[in-house]
Design brief:
The strands form three sheets. The chain has a six-stranded mixed sheet with strand order 7-8-9-3-10-11, with helices on both faces. A six-stranded mixed sheet has the order 15-12-13-14-17-16, with no helix packed on it. The C terminus is likely disordered. It has two domains: 203 residues, P-loop containing nucleotide triphosphate hydrolases (Rossmann fold, 3-Layer(aba) Sandwich), CATH 3.40.50; 70 residues, OB fold (Dihydrolipoamide Acetyltransferase, E2P) (Beta Barrel), CATH 2.40.50. It is of the alpha/beta class.
Length: 294
Amino acid sequence: MLEVRVRRRLATFDLDVTFAVEGAEILAVHGPSGAGKTTLVNLIAGLDRPDRGRIVADGRVLFDDAAGIDVAPAARRIGYVFQDGRLFPHLSVAGNLRYGRHRGRGRVDFDQVVALLGLGPLLKRRPRTLSGGEGQRVAIGRALLSGPSLLLMDEPLASVDPERKAEILPFVRRLRDAFALPILYVSHSADEIAQIAERTIRIEKGRLASGAAPATPSTGGPADGLALMAVVADHDPATQRTLLDTPFGRLSVPLRPEAPGTPVRVTVDAVSVAPVADTDHLAVLPPRPAAGLP
């Protein structure tokens, strides 16, 4: 389990976030560029220091300004997968993996990680010969072999082409079950998040904007759309519209009966969505309403 309550003054706003990751789940962190997502994971990893707050992982207090606790990054037992992998170029894939295993003091089985991530054919190769997807699989393996109690993944597939993403995402989903690890997954991609996350939180200008649990995308045709959980934000009787907060932004839909704050499940068909003029909202429009909407 991970408990986070942190404040950090940034150049244009204050990051002020409180949340928890319950057990072995994948929690996605979503939001616009510059919202504070990478700063948040760096604070958890110990690469940056909160001005105030408390961070607890697996029952260990990693940071508490009131108690004067600030555990060094190397002692936090946190695996971190960066956007660019950051493999050691002078080491083979096996050498990179053994570096992680050395840090983890053998807490995680080497052969299990190699088999889980399909790294056997790559062990003798150098990072420069790997594709982007292969390199990220090695980076994930190295992080796992460090024996972490928590895995942080900061835009790990941002530089990977769609075909490689489709290969890697199933590996990420398996980590939760194989290692019972909480995973904090930062991404701009709504599709990535919908495929792997149990829950998501959205950060805007350093604050939590909304939180809900996205369902997996439909496997049917385009008219099936994307199923997700939302929360009723407000009603506008004048326009007969309801505003829903979703993990990927705010939707304006035909007026619903539920009170503000009520969780609702909706399915949104992309062909039925259009921007609302002069706002940041998206409207689900007739004549093709999505399933689950009035």
